[in-house]
Write a structure and sequence with these properties.
The protein is an alpha+beta fold. It has helices spanning 9-20, 32-39, 69-81, 83-104, 143-209, 215-249, 276-282, 284-304, 350-417, 422-456, and strands spanning 109-115, 127-138, 310-322, 334-342. Helix 2 (32-39) crosses helix 9 (350-417), helix 5 packs antiparallel against helix 6 and helix 9 runs antiparallel to helix 10 (422-456).
Length: 480
Amino acid sequence: MRAPRLITRSALALAVSLSLLAGCTLLTPPASEALRKDALPNVSVPQQWVQPAEPGAVADSGFGSFNDPVLAALVQEALTYNADLRAGAARVEQARGYVTVAGADLQPAVAALAKGGGKWSGDYSGMQNALIGATWEIDVWGRQRYGARAASDTYASAQLDFEYARQSLAAWVVRSWLLAVQTAQQEDLLQEMLQSGNKLVGMTQQRLKFGIGDEKDVVQAQASLGEYRDRLRQIQLAHTQAQRALEVLLGRYPGAEIQTASRLPAMPGPVPAGLPAELLERRPDVVAAERRVASAFNLTEEARVAHLPKLSLTATFGAVSSDLIVLKNRDNPMFGLGGSLFWPIFTGGALQAQVDIRTAEQQQAVAEYAAVGLRAFNEVEGALASETALRERQVILEQVASDSRRAIELSTVQYKVGSTDLRSVLQEQLRTYGTLLSLVQIQGERLTQRVNLHLALGGGFGPQAASAAADQPSLPVAPN
């Protein structure tokens, strides 16, 4: 049995020699340290955070539920049903598919062809054949490997972006939940304010009726009562909007029907902030931006070597027969081996333009990495500064609330001994309510900033027991 010689020995030797070059070393993307110097040339990263921060390594997980199983269940529900997150998961799957496609180019492509039909086949030749062919482009210059590495880097960046999206979604759920609880607590305070305001209006009207008051006091009391009603309506709207926002995050219909806690949770213990130099290595969105730089680098190198020759090997194996035509050589099966060389000599500048495009994309990826890194630093410093300021403001307001309660007690004593009337007690009570409203807002903002800090540091979200109880403002009680 004799197989036809479809390629000369010298050609085969050349093909084998060139195929050995396929293992040539590829250029590597810039290392993390080199990338930071290139992307952030005007940034001097300090040894410690500028704002006061808790020392220690950042926890990878274990924050976000405030030791509340209901809130923890809501976070898990959002991670399961949120529409944006499901779209992000689909993008990850797409990126993984592109990795498979790019890797397939490095493998031989095998196809089969069969034809039959007896004496009167489709072309009236009466020929029947069965062939198996294989084609393999030898990656001499690394073009295909650069493409495969770029696809792998893109896939890695998609996974990291998805992880950061999960963390961000969990943070949004907690923040929306906190806002709903905060507004519900403020609504209760405003309801109490309305009751005291109504009492004050009634008292001024009685004084005017008996001739011991004036109309100015009545009008002022009524105006204040109107302001309380307006603030209550604002808080009620904010509460329903927070409920709707939370329901959308959970993948539910935004009907403002979700129930939340009636009081803000205790403030968790301090969050270790780690070191600024570690942030760029820890936050998923920053590392994702770094992988996009690597992908852009590999795509640039892929475009750069695209103008070099492409070498492909082909092999066929099959059998041919005919019922109508006498074939010159009926030896079966047949085997053939061949090769092809493709060298783009003139493309009108298209290949160089592709290199320029990829280079610009790489520069864009480096700039975007710098923007993400600076945003990460700013978010941490901002959250640390806000936490310090809010903690100090809470201490101030707690003292104001304590003094206001004492003023109510003293006014009550004066009222009982007859040295003043009930109006002064009610007025002190209303001022105290205003302080308590601000205190609840500060407590809510402080808890929200704690969530922001944990997210900015790249920490995960999960159940954790609160280590310190925050003093909840108590309602002032007016005498009967």
